C-alpha cells in the first residue's frame, strides 16, 4: 500500500485528469462538472481505504477485509465507463467520473507492492517494492500522466512531443 501522503498526492493528479477529460466532454453549465470532478477525484483517491471503515460504529473498525471489495478493479472500471458514457446527460456523471478516476489511481498506487489488488478475481501484484517505499515513483508517474492529459486538453498539445499531438482523448 502506498502511504497516505502518496494517495493524497496522486489524488490531486487524478482530479486534474478527471477535470481535463470532463472539460473536453462538455463539463456542464458554467463548467461546474469540471470542478466537481476534480473534487471527487481527490476524494476518490482515498476512498478504497475509507469505504472499509464502519463509520456507523463507535469502534470504527473495518467492516470488510482490507483490499477486498473496495479495492476491486472491475468495480472501479465499471463506474469509470458508465460515468464517462453519461457525461453531459446526467449531473451526477462528472463527480462519479472524478471519483472513479481517484479510485483507480488508488489501485494503481497499491498495485506495485506484494499485497497487490484484486483486479478481476484474485489479487495481482507487480511485486516491485514493499509498502510505503518508492512513493515518489508513483507520485511522479501520476503527475506526469496529469501533465500530459491536462496539457493536451487545455493547451491543445502546444508543448507536447510531436507524436503526442494527435493522441485522442474523448
Can you walk me through this structure?
- The chain is mostly helical and 170 residues long.
- It has one domain (4-164).
- Helix content is 52%, strand content 2%.
- The chain is built from six helices and two strands, in the order H-H-H-H-H-E-E-H.
- The chain has helices at residues 4-24, 32-44, 47-50, 73-85, 93-110, 135-154; strands spanning 117-118, 123-124.
- A two-stranded antiparallel ribbon has the order 1-2.
- A hairpin with a 4-residue loop joins strand 1 and strand 2 (123-124).
- Helix 2 (32-44) runs parallel beside helix 5 (93-110).
- The longest helix has 21 residues, at 4-24.
- The mean pLDDT is 78.
- Keywords: Hydrolase.
- One of its GO terms (molecular function) is hydrolase activity.
- InterPro entries: YdjM-like (IPR007404).
- This is LexA-binding, inner membrane-associated putative hydrolase.
The radius of gyration over CA amounts to: 16 Å
Strand content: under 5%
Order of helices and strands: HHHHHEEH
Q: How many helical stretches?
A: 6
Structural class: mainly alpha
What profile does the largest beta sheet have? 2 strands, antiparallel
Quaternary state of the chains: single chain
Number of domains: 1
Helix content: 40-55%
Number of strands: 2
Amino acid at each position: 500500500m502506498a502511504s497516505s501522503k502518496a494517495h493524497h498526492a496522486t489524488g490531486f493528479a487524478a482530479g486534474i485528469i478527471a477535470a481535463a477529460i470532463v472539460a473536453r466532454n462538455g463539463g456542464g453549465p458554467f463548467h461546474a462538472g469540471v470542478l466537481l470532478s476534480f473534487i471527487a477525484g481527490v476524494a476518490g483517491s482515498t476512498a478504497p481505504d475509507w469505504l472499509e471503515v464502519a463509520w456507523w460504529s463507535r469502534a470504527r473498525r473495518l467492516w470488510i477485509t482490507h483490499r477486498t471489495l473496495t479495492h476491486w478493479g472491475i468495480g472501479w472500471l465499471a463506474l469509470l465507463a458508465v460515468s464517462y458514457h453519461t457525461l453531459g446527460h446526467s449531473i451526477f456523471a462528472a463527480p462519479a467520473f472524478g471519483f472513479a478516476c481517484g479510485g483507480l489511481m488508488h489501485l494503481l498506487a497499491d498495485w506495485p507492492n506484494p499485497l497487490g489488488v484484486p483486479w478481476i478475481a484474485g489479487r495481482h501484484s507487480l511485486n516491485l517494492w514493499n509498502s510505503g517505499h518508492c512513493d515518489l515513483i508513483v507520485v511522479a508517474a501520476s503527475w506526469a500522466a496529469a501533465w500530459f492529459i491536462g496539457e493536451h486538453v487545455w493547451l491543445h498539445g502546444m508543448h507536447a512531443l510531436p507524436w503526442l499531438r494527435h493522441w485522442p482523448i474523448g
